[in-house]
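FORM 7B - TANDEM STRUCTURE REPORT

SECTION 1: FIRST PROTEIN
SEQUENCE AND TOKENS:
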Amino acid sequence: MTPAKSAAGGTASAKPAAKKQAPVKAAAKKAAPVKGASKKTVAAGEGASEGALAGKAASKKAVAPVPPRNESHTALVRRARRINRELAEVYPYAHPELDFENPFQLVVATVLSAQTTDLRVNQTTPALFARYPTPEDLAEANPEEVEEILRPTGFFRAKTKSVIGLSRALRDDFGGEVPGRLEDLVKLPGVGRKTAFVVLGNAFGRPGITVDTHFQRLVRRWRWTDEKEPDKIEKAVGGLFPKSEWTMLSHHVIFHGRRICHARKPACGACPIAPLCPAYGEGETDPEKAKKLLKYEKGGFPGQRLNPPQAYLDAGGMPAPPLGAG
């Protein structure tokens, strides 16, 4: 979906046709986007074609309407759900961007993803899981050897302590299996609510909202909430959607944050939900310039996973290179 085109309204005077043209042309020039504009009509006098005016209006770049600050809760819910529907059409292949084959690999990879990219984690974990395929194996690992493998992910000493610690907890307290309950997952070293919901939603099919940095940034830009603490954001946004949509909502928002709605320079001119975004204009609005800001498959670059889902590949996504390639 592209930003809606709008035309500025105007009324024709009862003056002779020759003098009536100037106001009409002025109206067409002012057909640039107006806040809250959707469909407006141009009343053309004699000698002015309705179709011609519509064509001029359609050629103007639209500016997204800004939802009022006193937007009602009902209006907010409708706008939020429409944004999610639009994102679902743009990213029908949205998925967790960490490579994993089982819940153990997912919980370890998610812990490692703190303060780094999923791509870097995906480039690092193949060596880790090849050497330590089970919780029992990692629980008995030499910390120095694990640190060396995890060094590319940053904060490797703390992460080594966490993944060995959670592996020991899985071995000693859960029979070597990753638990499928939130209250059990958050007891594991290095596992907070964000990590727990990633695991629950993607390894066990249990709904959860993943409040990472992308999610926090976008929901505040969209004025879904003004909260800044992850648990409060989770509660506020969760109240706008059916629980069954939480996991895919997280994927849609995070995909959009990585590909288009960037932290420093969002590609507003290439954004499919611009008409619904109160923050439209914070980034580059020129469509051609905005296209150059796109990342991953939207910009023709590799994604985050070395082994992405087939649906992602079918949609034009490209797998990331292994560690040290290129």
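SECTION 2: SECOND PROTEIN
SEQUENCE AND TOKENS:
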Amino acid sequence: MTVTPLARPARLRPGARVAVVAPSGPIPEDRLAAGLDILRGWDLEPVVAPHVLDVHGELGYLAGGDEGRARDLQEAWCDPGVSAVLCARGGYGAQRMVDLIDWAAIRAAGPKVFVGYSDVTALHEAFAVRAGLATLHGPMVAAATFLKDPRTQESLRATLFEPETVRTLGLDTARPMAPGRAHGVTLGGCVSLLAADLGTPHARPSARGGLLLLEDVGEEPYRLDRILTQLLRSGWLDGVAGIALGSWAECGPYEGVRAVLADRLAGLGVPVVEELGFGHSDTALTFPLGVPAVLDADAATLTLDVPALA
């Protein structure tokens, strides 16, 4: 099976209602309020899902129970008055609730804007594989980067409202790790979540034909080596067209991280670009998943064939 383009949602219009959900970890109320203010400043109407501020009674790293988090996402998606579903933060917990969602109902409701990253990678994969829908690997409403960094905010805003203006993606920090130019469909996210998906029901069989986006946080170099080696040994990386690398926050000095990435990925014979500027970084650009694009290692850019949103 080759990675193929997915159904893109429509761009947002001023006044659109957008639902905010918490599929993973608990949300600081003050940060949520600040994020909602940014959305209102874009002339959006944010609607906070019922369980967003919940905290699990025994497992304090979860934003309430699995059923409530899943229900929030499904009800927001199936509400015809909601144009987008934005995640409040990552953390941990999306894997626990992903199988509680009625994906047939999600498919029937059709494409909508869905934004998040980190632990939300598990949901990006589910939207792609189980619903055939393109999503946005982008900043979350209550995340510190979104609240503090104007470029992060503008990347998301432009993608939501003027997607044709953000067709070539990447920061000035980007540079080639392995040369070449490749065409494929974007997929990926947090590499530890991609590895954790292996062997589970409905998991993507491989990244064949895709342009794979990889980033992570808090994984020491030897653990990144283990994760990438698992993807290699499983055959999941067989036939990948190209690899775009984002940030590796709290993974140790970048020289050590880079050595692992080069050792595990640069020998695949496909273009690899590093430090493109997505993920757990001071500036987190919005990258669409499920969209055809060209990865040019020499120019250190990812250029979309079509705008992220229709």
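SECTION 3: OBSERVATIONS ON SECOND PROTEIN
The first helix runs from residue 29 to 41.
The longest strand covers residues 181-190.

SECTION 4: SIGNATURE
Preparer initials: ____
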